[in-house]
Amino acid sequence: MASIEFEEQELVDKVVHISRVAKVVKGGRRFSFSALVVVGDGNGRIGWGLGKANEVPEAIRKGIEHARKNLIEVPLVKKTIPYGVTGRFGASRVLLKPASEGTGVIAGAATRAVVETAGIKNILAKSLGSNNPHNLIKATFDGLLQLKSPDQVAHKRGKSVSEIL
After folding, report:
1. Which of 117, 148, 112, 94 shows the shortest CA–CA distance to 38?
2. CA 44 to chain centre
3. Residues 6+ apart with CB under 8 A from 57
4. Is 27 helix (H, G, I), strand (E, B) or coil?
5. Distance between CA atoms of 74 and 143, rounded to whole angstroms?
6. How does strand 92-98 pair with strand 28-40?
7. Which of 68, 78, 115, 120 lies in the 20 to 30 Å Cα band around 14?
8. Cα(58)–Cα(51) distance, rounded to whole angstroms?
9. H-helix or E-strand containing 31?
């Protein structure tokens, strides 16, 4: 993941999944928690993090801290993505398609959290394969990382933005 440095800005966080895990020791089971968290500024910057601790709030705090360190930039065109992509990770595949104004976010739980925190208002998403929230988030990020803005595409082709659009 390409890490981008930002000043302290207003980031919204969403807890996607909390797992209670047990370690079996001599005296019984010792429980701890892992929290999968997505943070974003609602303007194309998002990151995800996994925090593990003995208490839920501490696990969430660690997840948010990790997510803030791994922010990526997503190109947005009229509050949607520029074109359709498929993200893959493990056995999960996520199909992301741009949608017209007024459609809203049509996506499953983990993918919905990612696109809403990124500030995407209109998108169609379909989860194909595994529904593991960890893999779904990573597959969604893979798809969003594949996106290029119209400016980047025009520069790469040696044309103007108006010729591309």
Report:
1. 117
2. 10
3. none
4. coil
5. 10
6. unpaired
7. 78
8. 8
9. strand 28-40
Compute φ and ψ for 140, nearest 5 degrees: -65, -45
Q: What is the pTM of this model?
A: 0.85
- Angle CA 12–17–19, to nearest 5: 135
Q: Which two tokens stand for residue 115?
A: 């696109």
Can you tell me the mean pLDDT for 48-57? Answer: 94
d(CA 73, CA 67): 13
Q: In angstroms, rounded to a whole number, what is the distance separating the alpha carbons of residues 145 and 139?
A: 10
103-132 pLDDT per residue, tens: 999 998 899 999 999 999 999 999 999 999
